[in-house]
UniProtKB/TrEMBL annotation:
SUPFAM superfamilies: Leukotriene A4 hydrolase N-terminal domain, Metalloproteases ('zincins'), catalytic domain. Belongs to the peptidase M1 family. NCBIfam families: pepN_proteo. The keyword NAD does not apply. Residues 1-30 are annotated as: Disordered. Its cofactor is Zn(2+). Keywords: Aminopeptidase, Hydrolase, Metal-binding, Metalloprotease, Protease, Zinc. This is Aminopeptidase N. It catalyses: Release of an N-terminal amino acid, Xaa-|-Yaa- from a peptide, amide or arylamide. Xaa is preferably Ala, but may be most amino acids including Pro (slow action). When a terminal hydrophobic residue is followed by a prolyl residue, the two may be released as an intact Xaa-Pro dipeptide. InterPro entries: Aminopeptidase_N-like_N, Aminopeptidase_N-like_N_sf, PepN_Ig-like_sf, Peptidase_M1, Peptidase_M1_dom, Peptidase_M1_pepN, Peptidase_M1_pepN_C, Peptidase_M1_pepN_C_sf. It comes from Aurantiacibacter zhengii. Its EC number is 3.4.11.2.
Length: 884
């Protein structure tokens, strides 16, 4: 399918557009309107007669009036595209019901009843992948946030908690494995050859944590003994051919279970923990109680098909979903505005876990890179929202880097200020107080305050104010005193013109230039618009290292010289601060270069200083290779653009590439030597070997930029001799950006070798879509016609188009073709899978921060999308906010 060439509406041309496009205005849901539900639903019983094309669902709800809510004689059961087959109240057919839009309203005479509703759904027609859907011949569910209402009528809100009993019947050939939440209580066969299973989940849960899976699956089975000696059976279910790639996921799961006991005192609470990998999935994975459903991408890994980064991804997501069992499931969310309660906290927990499993500083740098690459742009654009939003139209749009990653940073700051031990007292209290409840962010903050014994009154602003605070830093020296002047400014964001100062915890150290040492790290909390801190005992002006470990998610504007940055880049004992000094050195140079502030001499001088700092990194014997590789990574074009008020993506790309080439030329010998040393490290999964691969890939990138002939040769050789996916993909990435026969040969070889493995074919698409090749746009258009390309599989759609949309070199093509292509993708994908379609909008939504020519073209594409006659709520909300 060539979506690039089938515009759905004439390019925003008003004469050709539909005469009167129907204005669509989905209602806005507000946090302040929250009201408890009028009814309790303590028990749910579900019966499924499973079929790929027709599944019959009969649900019986035990309901009782909620004494804590305003009484209502009517119960609202949400539905989404469902039709009623029958309604019974207390076992008798009832006609005291009506439809309100998609919802079913049943009038109930008394205080307690039993409602039975039958519906029939077609999983094979479910392309949104929300509710019950067919993937690759099996049936599975996705209910967060509001997917359960696509299965049966139900009060589909997270504050209605029920225990579930589920009986499912289906063909034993098509669905040999029948899974659900909780414990398997009984199985049997029917006279017609079908079979059934009955599951019971003893833990009350909201409907979004319901899951069911039926299909031809095999399991990697293992077990874990909990801290109190309970034996838990662990299963990872996959397609038969994938069983050999589940080992790393299983090890990650066992490590997660142990770590959560040791670090947060959390023990698993069922005798069974199941994970299922499915190939059609909108997100990474889902924490359904006792039955996590995963995107195959975050389960399957072996050295031949997965990179070191993929291995880390599996470990992190397995941990994340497992940790939700407490932060999300045992304590859940009152409403969707509280999403960061579970997501921010769980991201922090998975980050701390990964820090403990691997290199702590490297993990910290990676997490900050993600924050700056994805969350900072969100916070400074039209979609900015606080980690606890105040309103939404479509909740799927709020599964954002702000709610997840900034949410984690906000809780991390509490931990930094409290100290680890006191913080743990706070989380213990939180789990104890709210176990079995649907809680709020406010509940969390209060538990930390009470448990850790701290005052977080002003800190609560981090939950309500959007925008990345800017901290200006100046250090003065007089006599033997160093005086630090700090000021903060929280920028205006949509709907929030005026901001109050927030408490910003900043770790800092003052280095003596001569000895290269400091007298201890300090934590200062800037909680006013401006403040001054003095430090005695400095005969000469010290060098300031600030926001060490990235103790606060802010941008720092510091008055610091190039020499001081070089000093910190070489000397700072905080690895993050060291990385930061190098980044600052590069960022400040590139900003000046892009803005045309440098003459040739100044440019050369700056490049030499940067090359010198990189040389020091290459030869520093005290660095391990993982850290060395990390330090060598240049700031991304997206992050660079973010540091400028108005960005010219073309200039940023040119200058960044030119700097890469200059470093490659200046350090050719050192890089080549480093490359050879790294290449001689045996290929395995040890930290040493992984570090070597990371350094090798970075060295290759610089060498190829500085000396393309040599780079091509090295890359081709690396490709041919690769014994693992990290090396193979690294080489292919370099070749994909160059022309020549090696590129063609390597791409062909890679495809033929892996054409049967969907996850690796995704890499093949993504590598080409994110390449630096001058013809990347044409490549992407041609790849859309590839027989293995489809918009229906989210991984595949993203592999081509998300990779392209995040490749500034392609997306920001000067003639605007990249924007048109992504707008076409949004329009083509919206009717199929609105959740995935809407995720492309933020890239176009950056238009206000881009130079005028491109900006106008981006905006025009957003307007073209807005004129489409029928947009999903998801895409409508994102496009209208982006234009608003
Ligand atoms: Zn999560």
């Amino acid at each position: 399918m060539d979506i690039a060439r089938t515009p759905s509406t004439p390019d925003g041309n008003p004469e050709l557009a539909d005469a009167a496009p129907t204005p669509q205005d989905p209602p806005t849901i507000r946090r302040e309107d929250y009201k408890p539900f009028a009814w309790l639903v303590p028990e749910v019983s579900l019966q499924f007669e499973l079929g790929l094309e027709a599944t019959r669902v009969v649900s019986t709800l035990t309901v009782a009036r909620n004494a804590k809510a305003d009484p209502s004689p009517m119960i609202r059961l949400n539905g989404d595209g469902l039709e009623v087959v029958s309604v019974k109240v207390d076992g008798e057919p009832s006609n005291s019901w009506t439809m309100d839009g998609d919802d079913l309203l049943v009038t109930l005479p008394g205080d307690a009843h039993e409602i039975t509703v039958a519906t029939e759904i077609d999983p094979s027609a479910n392309t949104q992948l929300m509710g019950l859907y067919a993937s690759d011949g099996m049936l599975c569910t996705q209910c967060e946030a509001e997917g359960f209402r696509r299965i049966t009528f139900f009060p589909d809100r997270p504050d209605v908690l029920s225990t579930y009993r589920v009986r499912m019947t289906g063909s034993a050939e098509t669905f040999p494995v029948l899974l659900c939440n909780g414990n398997l209580e009984a199985t049997g066969t029917n006279d017609d050859g079908t079979h059934w299973a009955e599951w019971h989940d003893p833990w009350p849960k909201p409907s979004y944590l319901f899951a069911l899976v039926a299909g031809q699956l095999v399991a990697n089975t293992d077990s874990f003994t909990t801290m109190n000696g309970r034996e838990v059976t662990l299963n990872i279910y996959v397609r038969e051919g994938d069983l050999g790639r589940t080992g790393h996921a299983m090890e990650s799961l066992k490590r997660s279970m142990k770590w959560d006991e040791e670090t947060f005192g959390r023990e698993y609470d069922l005798d069974l923990f199941n994970i299922v990998a499915v190939s059609d999935f909108n997100m990474g994975a889902m924490e359904n109680k006792g039955l996590n459903v995963f995107n195959t991408k975050y389960v399957l890994a072996d050295e031949d098909t997965a990179t070191d980064g993929d291995f880390d991804g599996v470990e992190g997501v397995i941990a994340h979903e497992y940790f939700h069992n407490w932060s999300g499931n045992r304590v859940t969310c009152r409403d969707w505005f509280q999403l960061s309660l579970k997501e921010g906290f769980t991201v922090l927990r998975d980050q701390l876990f990964s820090q403990d499993m691997g290199s702590e500083p490297v993990k910290r740098i990676e997490d900050v890179r993600v924050l700056r690459g994805a969350q900072f742009p969100e916070d400074s654009g039209p979609l900015a929202h606080p980690i606890r939003p105040d309103s939404y139209r479509e909740i799927s749009n709020f599964y954002t880097a702000t709610v997840y990653n900034k949410g984690a940073e906000v809780i991390r700051m509490m931990r930094t200020m409290a100290g680890e031990e006191a913080f743990r007292k706070g989380t213990d209290l939180y789990f104890e107080r709210h176990d079995g409840e649907a809680a709020t962010c406010e509940d969390f903050v209060r538990a930390i305050e009470d448990g850790a014994g701290m005052d977080l009154q002003q800190f609560r602003l981090w939950y309500s104010q959007a925008g990345t605070p800017k901290v200006s830093v100046q250090l003065e020296h007089d006599g033997d005193t160093a005086t630090l002047h700090l000021s903060q400014q929280v920028p205006a964001t949509p709907g929030q013109p005026d901001k109050q100062p927030m408490p910003i915890p900043l770790k800092l150290a003052l280095f003596d230039r001569e000895s290269g040492r400091h007298s201890g790290e300090e934590l200062v909390v800037l909680d006013k618009a401006e403040d001054t801190f003095t430090f005695g005992g400095f005969a000469s002006k010290p060098v300031l290292s600030i926001n060490r470990g990235f103790s606060a998610p802010v941008t720092i504007e510091r008055d610091i010289s190039g020499e001081e940055l070089v000093f910190l880049a070489a000397q700072d004992d905080d690895p993050f601060a060291r990385y930061e000094a190098l980044q600052d050195l590069v960022v400040s140079h590139l900003k000046q270069a892009v803005e045309g502030e440098l003459d040739d001499a100044a440019r050369t001088e700056a490049r030499n200083a940067i090359a010198g700092a990189f040389r020091a990194v290459l030869v520093d014997e005290n660095l391990d290779d993982l850290m060395r590789g990390e330090l060598l990574v240049l700031p991304s074009e997206t992050y660079l653009a973010e540091t400028m008020r108005i960005a010219d993506p073309g200039r940023i790309h040119e200058e960044r590439q030119a700097l890469r080439a200059a470093i490659g030329i200046a350090l050719e010998d050192e890089l080549a030597a480093e490359y050879q040393t790294a290449a001689s490290v045996p290929s395995d999964l040890s930290a040493e070997a992984r570090g070597a691969r990371k350094v090798k890939t970075q060295a290759l990138l610089y060498l190829a930029a500085g000396n393309p002939e040599r780079g091509r040769e090295l890359a081709w050789e690396q490709y041919r001799n690769a014994r693992n996916m990290t090396d193979r993909q690294g080489a292919l990435m370099v070749l994909a950006g160059m022309s020549g026969i090696e590129r063609t040969n390597a791409l062909l070889d890679f495809y033929n070798r892996y054409k049967g493995n969907a996850l690796v074919v995704d890499k093949w698409f993504a590598l080409q879509a994110s390449s630096m090749h001058p013809d990347v746009l044409e490549h992407v258009k041609a790849l859309a016609d590839h027989p293995q390309f489809t918009l229906r599989n989210p991984n595949r759609a993203r592999s081509l188009y998300m990779a392209f949309a995040h490749n500034p070199h392609g997306f920001h093509a000067e003639d605007g073709e990249g924007y048109r292509l992504i707008a076409d993708v949004i329009l083509a994908l919206d009717p199929i899978n609105p959740q995935t379609a809407a995720r492309f909008v933020p890239q176009l939504g950056r238009w206000r921060r881009i130079e005028p020519k491109r900006s106008a073209m981006m905006k025009a594409q957003l307007e073209r999308i807005a004129e489409a006659p029928k947009l999903s709520r998801d895409t409508y909300e994102q496009v209208s906010r982006s234009l608003g």
